[in-house]
Design goal:
The complex is a heterodimer of chains A (about 475) and B (about 140). Chain A has about 475 residues and is an alpha+beta fold. Chain A has a single domain, classed as tRNA-splicing ligase RtcB (Alpha-Beta Complex). In chain A, the strands form 4 sheets. In chain A, strands 7, 8, 9, 11, 15, 16, 18 and 19 form an 8-stranded mixed β-sheet that branches. Chain B has one domain: Archease domain (Archease, Possible Chaperone, Chain: A, domain 1, 3-Layer(bab) Sandwich). In chain B, a hairpin with a 2-residue loop joins strand 7 and strand 8. In chain B, helix 1 packs parallel to helix 2. Chain B starts with a strand and ends with a strand. Classes of the chains: A alpha+beta (about 475), B alpha+beta (about 140). The interface between A and B is large, with 47 and 32 residues.
Chain lengths: ~475, ~140
C-alpha cells in the first residue's frame, strides 16, 4: 500500500500521520529494511484501520515483528479509554492468551546432549501435539472445566501439576480476574474439554534450548540463567476453546458495532464499547479462555518435568526445573498508565505483542523487581530465541509493550516451495537440532527462512529502548504438532 | 475441475472460489478448506447433514466453513462430496458424504484455527459468483 504516507522519526521509529478516518497517528518500530518490506504488504493499512476505532488513546502501535494479520496487524498494540473506548476480539486474536513460558533447569548442556534424542522422543510422546491428540489420563467434567476457566494455572497446581512457586512467575499470577465460564457456548466448552494439556500445531512448539550468550549479567543472575545451561520453552495458547470464544464474540460484535454506530473499515475489526454489555461479556469470556491457556501451559510444564525425570533418571531436586516467567502475547487487559501527564485506566490490546513492564512495577514479580518483567521472544526453530526485560522508556511510549517473536516473511506456500526436495529434519540435525513433528508439512512451513531473523527484531526493540536483551537461547530439540 | 485456489497471505491462507450459482460457490469454498487441511483422498463412508443460518451471505460463508471445521475438530470428519440441498442469503442446508479420518494414517497438513471475516467477499458477477475468505492458521 504505497499510498500510505509514512514519515521517518529516527533509525527505528516511523510515524503514519493521521489521515482519512484515522483518529490518531500510527507508530511503527522498524529498521529501514523492515519498512521497505512492510510497504509491500498490507500490514501498514491495518495499523491505520486500528487508528480509526473509537476511544483509542495514544498512537496505533506496531512492533518490529509486525506482519499482515486479519483486522489488526500481528505485532499490534492499541490502548482504549475505559469510558469512551472499545474492545475488539479481533484485537486479541483467535488464540486468546497464546503465550510463552520459559523454564530454567540446573542442568548443563554436557549433561543433556548425550540424551537429547531420547528427551525429544519422550517430550513428543508425553505431551500431545498435532490434530486430534490428547492425554487419555486427563478427563474433564463440565464442572471441573468451569473451575479451570475460573482459576487458570492455579487449578493445575491444586491438582498436583506444579507448585505455588510457578504461579508467582506467570503474568497476572496465571489467572485473569473477572472470568465468567457461564458466558461460554457449549461448543467452546466441548472443544476445550478434549484439548486441555495439548500443544497444538503450526507455530506452537516445545523446545529444549541452551543458554548461548548473556547480554546483561546482573539480570541473567536474577533470572537464574548461566551460559551453557539447559532451559525449556513452551509456546501454546487456549486451543479450540479460545478460537471458539473469539468466533462466538466476533458474531455478537458484528451486531454490536451496528447497534452502537461504529463504522468499520474491515469486518474483522468489529468491536463494542468497553462500557456496553457486549464489551463486558467479551472481556469476561476472554478472561476464561486466557485462564484455560495458563492452565494448559502449567500442565505441559508438569509433563516436561516428568519427561526429564524419566529420561535422565534424576529427581526434581537434581533437575531443578522452575518457571522463569510466562507471558501472554494475544490479550486485552485493563491497566493503569500515565498518558500525557494523567493517570488513566486503559484497555490495552496486544495482538502478537508482549507486555514488558519496567523495573519497580508492582505487577513485576518481587524477585525481578530491580530488573523489570522478563519478556520471552521465540525466534524460528533453526536459529535462536531471546530473553529480554521491560524498560521504563517502553512503559511510557508503548504502554509497556514490546515485540513477540520473529514474524513471518514468507507465506506458508512459499516456505513449502523453498523446502521442497530438501530434508529439513536432516539439515537441522546436522546443526545439532533434533526435530520431532507429527506433520512434515508443518516442518516445511516453519523453516527458518519463513521468518525474519529475530535478532533484527530484538535489535530494533533494544535500540528503541522498549526492551533490553538479557540472553540468547539456541534450540537443541524442537517438538511441533 | 477445481474452481478454487489458495491465496498467499504472510501468516495465514486464503481461499478464492468461483461458482455458477451460490450453491456451487459454497461447495467450492468447502473443497478449498479441505485442501488447506489435507491433500489426501477421502472415502465416502459416512453421511452428515448440516443446517446453517446467518444474518447475511458473508456470515453464512463463515458459519458454513466453521461448521465443517467443527465436524473435523470434534469427530475428525472430512467431506468428499457435498450436496447443497438449499441455499439463500441467510440459510443453507447440506448433505455431506465423507470419512472420519485417522490422523496417524493420512497426512493432516495444517490445523485451521478459524474462519475469519478479514477481507471476506461473496459477490455476484455477470458470469457467476465469486468468494474470498481467509482462514487463521
Amino acid at each position: 500500500m504505497n499510498d500510505i504516507k509514512v514519515e521517518q522519526i529516527d533509525s527505528c521509529r516511523w510515524r503514519i500521520p493521521r489521515q482519512g478516518a484515522m483518529r490518531t497517528d500510527g507508530l511503527v518500530f522498524a529498521s529501514r529494511q523492515m519498512m521497505r518490506d512492510l510497504r509491500r504488504e498490507k500490514a501498514l493499512e491495518q495499523v491505520c484501520n486500528v487508528a480509526t476505532l473509537p476511544g483509542i488513546v495514544g498512537p496505533s502501535i506496531a512492533m518490529p515483528d509486525i506482519h499482515w494479520g486479519y483486522g489488526f496487524p500481528i505485532g499490534g498494540v492499541a490502548a482504549f479509554d475505559e469510558n469512551d473506548g472499545v474492545v475488539s476480539p479481533g484485537g486479541v486474536g483467535y488464540d486468546i492468551n497464546c503465550g510463552v513460558r520459559l523454564l530454567r533447569s540446573g542442568l548443563s548442556v554436557e549433561e543433556v546432549r548425550p540424551r537429547i534424542e531420547a528427551l525429544a522422543n519422550e517430550l513428543y510422546r508425553n505431551i500431545p501435539s498435532g490434530v486430534g491428540s490428547h492425554r487419555r489420563d486427563l478427563k474433564l467434567s463440565v464442572p471441573e472445566e468451569r473451575k479451570v476457566l475460573k482459576k487458570g494455572a492455579a487449578w493445575a497446581v491444586e491438582n498436583g501439576f506444579g507448585s505455588a512457586e510457578d504461579l508467582e512467575h506467570i503474568e497476572a499470577g496465571g489467572a485473569i480476574e473477572g472470568a465468567d465460564p457461564g458466558l461460554l457456548s457449549d461448543r467452546a466448552l466441548e472443544r476445550g474439554r478434549n484439548q486441555l494439556g495439548t500443544l497444538g500445531s503450526g507455530n506452537h512448539f516445545l523446545e529444549i534450548e541452551l543458554v548461548e550468550e548473556i547480554g546483561d549479567e546482573q539480570a541473567a543472575n536474577l533470572l537464574g540463567l548461566f551460559p551453557g545451561q539447559v532451559v525449556v520453552s513452551i509456546h501454546t495458547g487456549s486451543r479450540g476453546l479460545g478460537y471458539q470464544v473469539c468466533d462466538d464474540h466476533l458474531k455478537l460484535m458484528q451486531r454490536a458495532a451496528k447497534k452502537y454506530g461504529i463504522e468499520l473499515p474491515d469486518r474483522q475489526l468489529c468491536c463494542a464499547p468497553l462500557s456496553s454489555p457486549e464489551g463486558k461479556e467479551y472481556l469476561a469470556a476472554m478472561a476464561a479462555a486466557a485462564n484455560f491457556a495458563f492452565a494448559n501451559r502449567q500442565l505441559i510444564t508438569a509433563w516436561v518435568r516428568e519427561s526429564f525425570e524419566h529420561v535422565l533418571s534424576k529427581g526434581p531436586s537434581d533437575l531443578r526445573i522452575s518457571t522463569i516467567y510466562d507471558v501472554c502475547h494475544n490479550i486485552a487487559k485493563f491497566e493503569t498508565h500515565h498518558y500525557q501527564g494523567k493517570k488513566r485506566r486503559l484497555c490495552v490490546h496486544r495482538k502478537g505483542a508482549t507486555r514488558a513492564f519496567p523495573p519497580g512495577h508492582p505487577e513485576t514479580p518481587a524477585l525481578y523487581r530491580s530488573i523489570g518483567q522478563p519478556v520471552l521472544i521465540p525466534g524460528d526453530m533453526g536459529r535462536y530465541s531471546y530473553v529480554l526485560v521491560g524498560t521504563e522508556a517502553g512503559f511510557g511510549e508503548t504502554f509497556g509493550s514490546t515485540c513477540h517473536g520473529a514474524g513471518r516473511v514468507l507465506s506458508r506456500q512459499k516456505a513449502k516451495k523453498l523446502a521442497r526436495g530438501r530434508q529439513i529434519e536432516a539439515e537441522l540435525a546436522e546443526r545439532g537440532i533434533i526435530v520431532r513433528a507429527s506433520s512434515r508439512a508443518t516442518v516445511a512451513e516453519e523453516i527458518s527462512e519463513a521468518y525474519k531473523d529475530v535478532l533484527d527484531v530484538v535489535s530494533v526493540v533494544e535500540q528503541a529502548g522498549i526492551g533490553k536483551i538479557v540472553a540468547r537461547l539456541k534450540p537443541l530439540a524442537v517438538v511441533k504438532g | 475441475m477445481a474452481r478454487f485456489r489458495l491465496l498467499e497471505h504472510t501468516a495465514d491462507i486464503g481461499i478464492e472460489a468461483a461458482g455458477e450459482s451460490l450453491a456451487d460457490l459454497f461447495q467450492q469454498t468447502a473443497f478449498g478448506l479441505r485442501q488447506v487441511i489435507t491433500s489426501s483422498a477421502i472415502s465416502l463412508q459416512q453421511e452428515r447433514r448440516v443446517s446453517i443460518t446467518a444474518e447475511d451471505r458473508e456470515e453464512l460463508l463463515v458459519n458454513w466453513l466453521s461448521e465443517l471445521l467443527y465436524l473435523f475438530e470434534s469427530e475428525l470428519f472430512l467431506a468428499a462430496e457435498i450436496d447443497i440441498e438449499s441455499i439463500d442469503e441467510r440459510n443453507l442446508l447440506a448433505r455431506l458424504r465423507g470419512e472420519v479420518v485417522d490422523p496417524t494414517k493420512i497426512d493432516i497438513e495444517r490445523e485451521v484455527k478459524a474462519i475469519t471475516y478479514h477481507q471476506i467477499k461473496v459477490e455476484e458477477h455477470t458470469d457467476g459468483w465469486r468468494a474470498q475468505v481467509f482462514v487463521d492458521l
